[in-house]
Amino acid sequence: MTDQTIAVAAVRFAAGEHIDDLLESVARAVGARGFRVAGYLQRETPDGPGCCGVTYLEDLAGGARTRLSQPLGAGARGCRLDPQALAEAACRLEATIGPRTDLVVLNRFGKAEADGHGFRDVIAAACELGVPVLTAVREPYRPVWNAFTDGLGALLSPEPAGVARWALDTVRARRSPRAA
Q1: For the residues of 66-110, what is the DSSP string, one character each?
Q2: Pairing status of strand 65-67 against strand 54-59
Q3: Domains defined for the chain, CATH in brackets
Q4: What's the sign of the alpha-carbon dihedral 131, 4, 6, 113?
Q5: Which of 31, 53, 75, 149 has its CA at a distance of 20 to 30 angstroms from the CA of residue 134?
Q6: 74 SS3 class
């Protein structure tokens, strides 16, 4: 581990809350100030009458979309997440994170991460480089988030101004000259 401070935060949210709008506004605000933001936002689109929506990850850098949900059929009740698509998206993102990345924004720390997969390696890689990470977590996954971050991960209220302040203060502190 480097001597840089680990800066990871998750915005608390409940099922049904539109956390993606908040994450997008923070990512755009940070990017508008000249900082380089990498990561994914979650997008949902309708998939016909009576069907669940289709879930996509949208790359913050270029807008490319990766479909995350599997078409399981109208009567399916199980998890629709395509673990292979998520793993591929995580690998692509991890390969793009470098010392010039100022902030990584991830759509969720959820079931896949709780099970040891998903974006866990992306978060760890960003922390190793001293790159701040912002994500979102629902209550069922908060204990796993706390354990994964070893208590160092901040939990933020879903208050747009406060989350934006955390992100901007964190990236500015990372870019400020360090005392020798």
Answers
A1: EE-B----TT--S--B-HHHHHHHHHHHHHH--TT--EEE-S---
A2: antiparallel
A3: 8-41+83-175 (3.40.50.300)
A4: positive
A5: 53
A6: coil
Which portions of the chain are predicted below pLDDT 50? 1-4, 179-180
CA distances from 101 to 12, 71, 98, 145 (A): 24, 34, 5, 23
Q: How confident is the model over 141-166, as pLDDT tens digits?
A: 999 999 999 988 999 999 999 999 99
Sequence-distant (6+) residues with CB within 8 A of 115 are none
pLDDT digits (tens, 9 = 90+) for 112-123: 999 999 999 999
Q: Do 51 and 75 touch, CB atoms closer than 8 A?
A: no
Long-range contacts, 61-67 (Cβ 8 Å, 24+): 61/37, 61/96, 66/40
Residue 42 · residue 56 · CB < 8 Å: yes
Q: Tell me the residue type at 47.
A: D
